Amino acid sequence: MKLSLGPVLFYWTREKLLDFYAEMAEQPLDAIYLGETVCSKRRALGLDDWLGLARELRECTRAELLLSGLALVEAASELSSLRRLCDNGELQVEANDMGAVQFLRERGLPFVAGPSLNLYNGHALAEMLDCGLRRWVPPVECSGNLVRSTLEQLDGLGLERPEVELFAYGHLPLAYSARCFTARAENRPKDDCQFCCVGYPEGIALHSQEGEALFTLNGIQTMSAKVNNLLADYPQLCAAGADFLRLSPRAEGMREVIAAFDAVRGGALPPLAVEGCNGYWHGRPGMLRAEEISL
């Protein structure tokens, strides 16, 4: 089993990003995704900066380096930037929007299908394989049974399976909107947000009237309140056909998270239970934990 570090989903300062990746270069990771997937206004690092960072990381890590694109393209300027990203000439691209898939298909370039693409069955994967798909990151709400049945359906079509990368740790990205919820929370218009999400390195917690944590607001992205953690499900992840486990960056504690997953893939027993949630993997509401599911 390989470990990947997903793209940073929150808005961090340039200094924090560079410090973070300098630390991650020392970790036992097999793939590192760079780039901005949430909001085109987040420009702490531009495309040239990401490529420059990748060149530096190549000198100190064995991990495969990839470049992720936006999940929601709303303007012609963003489409132009996406085209430039697909034409970067150095890093393989994670496509999070069908516009990126089209650009990459036209260029005959292999790509990773990110979790924001709606690929839920073998026939959809077969279409993407024709476009150049080499790795599939299932949507975060996919259960283990759905992942297995999708791959078996692909087998039935006589097609070779792509690599499978499961979202195994982090706040789950659930939805995207044209509205910026972080700006709205500070009574700012989206066009004059003043990059206020930089003040929330792990988003804004949203609670119900009863005080229960429901979601995390991250600019135009709505995420899970709890952290998805599939470490206790490691044997089932292997049985489902996973090749990679994606660990989504958080502002603190990633070194310890990576160490825990690395120990289990190295032969240590997985924990019986973990903090966070894993309901989606078991085909139940995502905010639940396995202990609650079994009741």
Under the CATH scheme, which class? Alpha Beta
The radius of gyration over CA amounts to 18 Å
CATH H level: which superfamily?
Aldolase class I
Helix content: 25-40%
Number of helices: 10
- Category from helices, strands and their pairing: alpha/beta
Largest sheet strand order: 1-2-3-4-5-6-7-11
Strand percentage lies at 15-25%
CATH topology label = TIM Barrel
| Poorly predicted runs | none
Mean pLDDT: 94
Structure commentary:
32% of the residues lie in helices and 21% in strands. The chain is built from 10 helices and 11 strands. Strand 2, helix 2 (47-58) and strand 3 form a beta-alpha-beta unit. It has one domain (2-171, 228-274): Aldolase class I (TIM Barrel, Alpha-Beta Barrel), CATH 3.20.20.70. It has an 8-stranded parallel beta barrel with strand order 1-2-3-4-5-6-7-11, surrounded by 4 helices. It is globular. The chain has helices at residues 14-24, 47-58, 76-86, 98-107, 122-131, 144-156, 181-185, 234-239, 254-265, 290-293, and strands at 2-5, 31-34, 64-68, 92-95, 111-113, 133-136, 163-176, 204-207, 213-218, 221-229, 244-247. The protein is α/β, with parallel strands linked by helices and 295 residues long. The longest helix is centred in the middle third of the chain and has 13 residues, at 144-156.
